[in-house]
Specification:
nine-stranded mixed β-sheet, transit peptide, alpha/beta, transferase
């Protein structure tokens, strides 16, 4: 049976209810989400809480006017005055008595007198202002985490040595290396083209052009994992390999380019392999008797101790390269009043962010090539 209806009346009834939307603007809200349920920073915090609570135990929940902390650490212990003037630097600070340890002991801790790094006193949450060009057009200082300077200081570059900075960008540690004024030749390399642009801008804004001549500095954008193809194996006195990592602090506060975003899941999972390959390249690049400094800015054991142990094992089995871990206890003793070092580390040194010393996280381990 057919029912005759008034089409005009029907259209008038539904006109206020239906809204016609073009197909390209329609979203099936029932199953298609326009944004992730958890942001990348939330995913990072969730990951850190689970992983680091198991790894660090009670240490994890604590996450526990400015002065040159390097000069303060080298100051004589006999000085009691809190506001005393730091005396002129000596050439080096030496330890007469060796400190016992499982690994090779570093009986002499030498700190370059030319590296300056200023921090505010504990409990002072003041921030340094962004650096501005001086009368010559150069920045008078470079802002970075104070703990990031420690791997450079611990590398202990001596006068006239050649150094490879295998993962140099964005340039903070490269500047610290050059500030030692001890390097005869520095090779700064980084695989990422965009990060290399940052490195070049950093060096240009802080250093006169005569210090960046081809005789003193070489800047390349090569895959550090394939350094053996460059043909510069066994030639460097010191190698710094500050590998890409999950950058714990950055991943907790920045959504842009966050390693914990879903689009970078495979990249995050492949980090330990990439780090191991980079450390193997560093061990190949350094000469016998030379030293390699491995560093990250994460608390992850998988990216720190595990990578060092795996690289040392592979280097010996597949490349015939043997190396030993250098004990950095004499070095860390100099800075225990400024940084909070994780206790009972089997391999390497780790700076934990703390409420009264909010630096890091930084992990670094020094290796000496034996053969």
């Amino acid at each position: 049976m057919a029912v005759q209806t008034n089409t005009r009346v029907l259209l008038n009834k539904v006109r206020g209810i239906l809204q016609f939307i073009q197909k390209r603007h329609r979203v099936k809200t029932k199953w298609a989400a326009t944004s992730p349920k958890l942001s990348a920073t939330d995913l990072a915090l969730q990951n850190h809480d689970v992983m680091y609570n198991m790894q660090l135990g009670e240490l994890w929940p604590s996450s526990l006017g400015c002065q040159d902390f390097i000069a303060s650490s080298l100051h004589m212990e006999g000085s009691k005055a809190a506001d005393s003037v730091i005396p002129p630097y000596s050439e080096s600070l030496q330890f007469d008595q060796p400190i016992e340890g499982t690994y090779t002991d570093l009986t002499r801790a030498s700190i370059s007198p030319n590296v300056k790094c200023f921090v505010f006193p504990k409990g002072d949450i003041s921030r340094f202002k962004p650096a501005r060009p001086d009368s010559c057009g150069y920045l008078s200082y470079y802002l970075m985490d104070a703990a990031s300077v420690l791997p450079v200081l611990a590398l202990n570059v001596q006068k006239g040595q050649s150094v490879l900075d295998l993962c140099a960008a964005p340039g903070g540690k490269t500047l610290a290396l050059l500030q030692t004024q001890a390097i005869r030749f520095l090779w700064a390399n980084d695989w990422s083209g965009s990060r290399m642009s940052r490195l070049q801008r950093t060096l240009k804004s802080c250093l006169p052009s005569e210090l960046c001549s081809e005789d003193n500095l070489c800047i390349t954008s090569l895959d550090g994992r394939k350094w053996q193809e460059v043909g510069e194996n066994g030639t460097f006195d010191k190698v710094l390999v500050d590998v890409p990592c999950t950058t714990d602090r950055h991943s907790l506060v920045e959504e842009d380019n966050n390693i914990f975003s879903r689009s970078r899941t495979k990249e995050k999972q492949s980090l330990p392999l990439c780090q191991t390959q980079l450390l193997l390249s560093a061990l190949q690049a350094v000469r016998v008797g030379g030293e390699v400094m491995y560093s990250t800015c994460t608390l992850s054991q998988l990216q720190n101790q595990c990578v060092v142990e795996q690289a040392m094992s592979l280097a010996k089995e597949e490349l015939g390269i043997s190396a030993e871990v250098v004990d950095l206890q004499p070095f860390t003793a100099l800075f225990q009043d400024t940084f909070y070092f994780a206790p009972d580390m089997n391999v390497g040194v780790m700076v934990l962010p703390h409420l009264t010393a909010n630096f890091g996280p930084i992990y670094f381990c020094k290796l000496r090539r034996l053969s």
